Amino acid sequence: INGLTYEFTITTYTKESAPADRCDLNINFGDNSSATFLRENGPIGSCPLPARMGEVLSGDFKRNIYRGQHTFPAQGIYTISVEDQNRNSGVDNIPNSVNVPFFIQTTLRINGQLGANNSVQLLNPPIDDGCTNKPFYHNPSAFDPDGDSLGFRLINCRGAGGIEILETYDASIVQDPVRIDSIIGELQWDVPQNQGQYNFAILISEYRIGPLGTWEFMGAVTRDLQVDIGQCNNEPPTIEPEGPFCVLAGDNVSFTIDADDPDGDPI
Question: Which residues partner with 197 through β-bridges?
């Protein structure tokens, strides 16, 4: 926002029908201080004003947005974290998940020589569906408002106090390995074999060229996502490849997509 003052946005997705709810969340700024942010989206409900009730989505999901500002005491590298009381029950690769807190963190580097910084923005929600015995793909659709270079890698989900959940990619639970493309950020699971709910986490780091011409680490954001794997009787459409196209920045490109559905479903 200005100088050492930054705005923080926490976005969570919760089960709308669950009795547990969070009118506010506590955020730890990594400088021995913390604050409570009120939920700012959705209708007015049972939460104490001015907190709101969250935005109900399809599929029994609710999106919750909490926002506030904080001024740091000095330049440096800070790890900002949020811990929510519990995940939903029945997550296969998080034992006793209903009693395991949800924990995410962001790393922020404040350095005047490197300029102001905005964190990575994620356009796709952290909830997705897949089918048994079919390849699963998820991309968070990340972009950096400052044009910083992004790198992606898988990490363990975290529980109380940020402790890593070592079963996140346990081969006896997840079966076939989960991978990620470190450049484009596509999570690849080839193939899920069992129905169930699974949680994975992606660390998205940002870098920029500093005044000395070397790549400098600017910060990182954690995406914790849930994948629901079910038994599916449907084949996805097949898309005919197009391109590549050469286009100048700012110009328009237009082309037709041709696709067929093996099941004869309308496209």
Answer: 91, 228
pLDDT at residue 243 is higher than 90: no
Query: Which pTM does this prediction carry?
Result: 0.89
* pLDDT one-digit tens code per residue, 136-194: 999 999 999 999 999 999 999 999 999 999 999 999 999 889 999 999 999 999 999 99
**pLDDT tens readout for residues 152-162:** 999 999 999 99
Determine phi and psi for 134, rounding to 5 degrees: -135, 140
Amino acid in the structure at residue 254:
S
Burial of 229 from C-beta contacts in 10 A (0-12 / 13-18 / 19+): buried
What does each C-alpha distance from 176 to 133, 155, 156, 172 come to in angstroms? 10, 17, 16, 9
The residue count for the chain: 267
Confidence of residue 58 (pLDDT cuts 50, 70, 90): confident
